[in-house]
Amino acid sequence: MKKGIHPEYRAVVFQDVSTDFAFLTRSTIKTRERTTWTDGKEYPLVKVEVSSASHPFYTGKQKIVDTAGRVDRFRRKYGLS
């Protein structure tokens, strides 16, 4: 590999903001936030909206986000309960 052209590959904590689930892995992503992991060391922190802890495919739970009653309006319009 050529020196000086590749991004830094380092340990990073990814945190799912909807479930507060976090995991430590390696990545080249850049972030300004930092957090302390269970080993007492400080790592860069990346906040994500969806992870395996909150995605319906992995959890088996469907979560409907209702924006201004759109789901209710749809169900009334098409006679669904």
From TrEMBL:
Protein name, per record: Large ribosomal subunit protein bL31B
Biological process according to GO: translation
Family label: Belongs to the bacterial ribosomal protein bL31 family. Type B subfamily.
Subunit (UniProt): Part of the 50S ribosomal subunit.
GO MF annotations in UniProt: structural constituent of ribosome
Organism: Plasticicumulans lactativorans
Pfam families: Ribosomal_L31 (PF01197)
InterPro entries hit by this protein: Ribosomal_bL28/bL31-like_sf, Ribosomal_bL31, Ribosomal_bL31_B, Ribosomal_bL31_sf
GO cellular component, one term: ribosome
